[in-house]
Design a protein that fits this description.
Layout: H1 2-10, H2 17-49, H3 52-63, H4 65-76, H5 81-98, H6 102-120, H7 127-167, H8 169-185, H9 190-196, H10 201-221, H11 223-237, H12 243-248, H13 254-270, H14 290-305, H15 313-340
Length: 352
């Protein structure tokens, strides 16, 4: 047992929820952003500006989402170079076999393949052959066997959530908005969760609402402490920056959570706001305006398929209110109340 423990320590193989559930998943989200998300943004710009070359660029970027995710996961797991490069093939296979649940399949399979590759790395004189062979063979074999199952399960679970939201838009609007918003601020990936569950439609709209409530809400509520820099870094970056302050005083999290509980059902029940773009956009909120681009892209897709006749003024009003105005106003009001009763004190929201 001591030999095994010493071997794992030497190989930096750490079986922990933090490394796999936080480090790897957060890195996977970055891989998704640098491929599928940025590709979607570029393709949208190309379509709207009438520049076909931008569509090509976006297509190439989006097409590399599997390899990008796997490579990012390997980097988070501190994989040596040969393992890291080999994970490109693993990510492509897992994402392809995984279908709608591709991101979740990549997460699980890339972790296993990376750890197997790390275990054999530099253990033989023919490392150049052994390490890539083990990493790729394990990863692609698992992809062929396990990824379709993961994809089917994730897709089925996502369909249950979407169907429940359609049947109970008010209640599920609250549940989805609050939970995905919380996931966005936690050091895990709401984007990866939404992508893995293929969360679109009304449920995707509720998820966008929850994420915006956290990002815009924290940005506005903490403006007196953090100024314009904090407004931009949280409003267009991530509310995860407040995680350290939340640990010190969990009460500062209540205003944006309350806001998400309001905007979620408004999005699903009143404005019928659907997010029918890339599923990952549902978990991005106002980060680079990806959530809003996703909603807009979904509108265009629906029009092209005949599911929607045109983008109406009501659509735009709903998008602006749900994503920007209400998160700013409601969280500021809730925050002001909590400041007055002493639950939030001066500099509780100050970013380091």
């Amino acid at each position: 047992m001591n030999k095994v423990k010493a071997f794992l320590e030497r190989k930096d193989i750490v079986f922990s929820a933090k490394r796999y559930g936080i480090d790897a998943m957060s890195a996977m989200a970055q891989g998704l952003f640098c491929s599928l998300l940025i590709g979607t943004i570029i393709k949208t710009l190309g379509s709207q500006l009438g520049v076909p070359f931008l569509n090509d660029i976006g297509g190439f970027a989006s097409g590399m989402s599997g390899p990008a995710m796997a490579c990012a996961i390997g980097y988070a797991l501190k994989a040596p170079p040969l393992v890291l490069y080999s994970l490109l093939a693993v990510g492509s296979a897992a994402n392809g076999y995984g279908g709608a649940g591709g991101p979740l399949a990549v997460l699980v399979i890339a972790i296993i393949a990376a750890e197997c590759g790390k275990a054999v790395s530099k253990e033989t004189r023919i490392d150049l052959l052994v390490t890539p062979f083990v990493t790729i063979t394990v990863g692609v074999a698992l992809s062929a066997w396990l990824a379709p199952v993961i994809g089917a399960a994730a897709s089925a679970f996502g369909e249950v959530i979407k169907h429940a939201t359609e049947m109970q838009p008010f209640l599920m609007g609250i549940v989805v908005s609050v939970l995905v918003g919380i996931a966005l601020t936690l050091p895990i990936s709401s984007a990866a969760i939404c992508a893995a569950l293929s969360l679109t439609g009304l449920a995707g709209g509720a998820a966008v609402a929850g994420c915006c409530a956290q990002m815009v809400g924290f940005a506005v509520m903490s403006f007196r402490e953090n100024g314009v820099g904090g407004l931009v870094s949280q409003g267009l970056g991530t509310s995860m920056l407040q995680m350290g302050n939340i640990v010190r005083n969990p009460k500062i999290w209540i205003p944006p959570i309350l806001t998400s509980a309001v905007t979620g059902p408004l999005a699903t029940y009143i404005f019928k706001m659907e997010m029918n773009g890339e599923a990952i956009s549902s978990g991005m909120g106002t980060c680079g305006l990806v959530g809003q681009i996703g909603v807009y892209t979904g509108w265009l897709n629906d029009i092209s398929t005949g599911a929607k006749t045109a983008i109406t003024a009501f659509d735009w009003v709903g998008l602006v209110l749900i994503c920007f105005v209400l998160p700013a106003v409601l969280t500021w009001v809730f925050g002001l109340f909590f400041r007055k009763i002493g639950w939030i004190k001066e500099n509780d929201l100050k970013l380091d």
